[in-house]
Amino acid sequence: MSRTSQLPQELIDKIVLELSGNWQSLEACSVVSSSFRDVSQKLLFKVLTIDLHIRFKAANTRLCDAFTSNPRLGDHVRSLRVRTSNQMATADVLRMMPKLRSLEILGGGSFLTLICTRWPSIMDELKADILSICFLPTLEQLKMKRISQFPLAVLRRCPQLKDLQIPDNHLHDTSDRSSSMDILSSSVDHRVTDPPATRGYLESLTVFSPEVCQQILRTLRHPTSYLLLSRLRRHNGEIVHELSVTAFQAVLDFAAASLEIVHAVILPDRPPDNYLDLSRLRNLRKVRLSTPRKCLPQNMLWACHALESIPEVNSVETVFLTFAGPPCAADSDVDPTLWGRIDELLTRERHSKTLRRVIVNTARYQNIEHPDDALLPAIARGMPMLYSKGVVEDVPVLINAAYA
Question: What is the 3-state secondary structure (H, E, C) of 286-351?
Fold first, then answer.
């Protein structure tokens, strides 16, 4: 009898779990004994990437053979990333992972390119296999990147989804000319055309294209949709122009009673003239407004307008204001009331005192009239309440002002 067989299974599981991410060690553990094999295989196959390019056909076939000889391997897969390209081959292995929880569909066939894959260009059998995954009762998260003309109407038949992410600006199918039944009519597996037994509610939505955002609203508000938006808890989006504000606002208004987390990324140097209105929200817990590009005073004013619209009925626990780049070329460029407005917003009594944070990141911009450390006293003078209630960390390229 081997010594490993004398160890409690709970202890073996803990030992192997410490090796998560160390693929060589996990492979070695999988051939030690049956006690090590099961937990090792669960970690090895938990996250899987399949490239549908024709040059990977042999590798996909070998994976399919392994899943056929040992179906438990397919059962272990929880997260699947599928890469598409302009030259694809069928992959039967896509039908052999019945317990998936997360699916990511990538276009272009490479993480290093921004080439889109047109959904209509994918062969029918592959489209049917991918759609079959979308309808799995266990699938809770769906991500799509660089996929154009994807038929968003299929979402109506996915009541099990909790998280939908479309974090790019590639144009998806913004027409409603195809119903979900039309899309599924060519499916190899006609069982997916059966209507779901119950309705479900999307909890998190990340979408950057305003056109796609508006189409998702129309799709999920359709009377025939089994996936609903009325209990949405989190919304992430970009603010680029007036249309993007309108689309973002439409989501806020529709799910005003349930939204708890709002994150808006303000991209342009000059923000839109219309502001986000958060006055209808009733359950807000966390709000984040950030500018990943060079920030101007207008961006900060835009963020202040949005924050000031939060009604007192909300008990906001966390506020993040993230400004990338110097907020001004000189102190005089900033509205004299701006820092005070931010100070008041982050210290107002109606908010829970869990966390308030202002982050000013000037690391990427060296050609400024004032050194980075000149920003700290300027902010300190403008936000005395915030500084009096917390700790200030004077970092050379990152200024944090926070208190608990």
Answer: EEEEEECCCCCHHHHHHHHHHHHCCCCCCCCCEEEEEEECCCCCCHHHCCCCHHHHHHHHHHCCCC
Question: Residue ranges of the domains in the chain?
Answer: 1-43, 45-231, 256-404
- Tokens matching residue 327: 């907020």
Token pair of 152 as six digits? 């968003």
* pTM of the full structure: 0.80
pLDDT for residue 113: 52
304, 344 Cβ separation under 8 angstroms: no
pLDDT digits (tens, 9 = 90+) for 342-353: 767 666 655 554
Q: How far apart are CA 95 and CA 64, in angstroms?
A: 9
202-252 per-position pLDDT tens digit: 999 999 999 999 999 999 999 999 999 999 999 999 888 888 999 999 999
What are the φ and ψ backbone dihedral angles of 205, each rounded to 5 degrees?
-130, 125
Q: Rounded distance, CA 110 to CA 106, Å?
A: 8
Task: Give the three-state DSSP class for 236.
Answer: strand
- Specify the amino acid at residue 356: R
Q: How far is CA 230 from CA 24, 134, 201, 253, 314, in A?
A: 46, 21, 7, 10, 18
CATH class as words, domain 45-231 = alpha beta
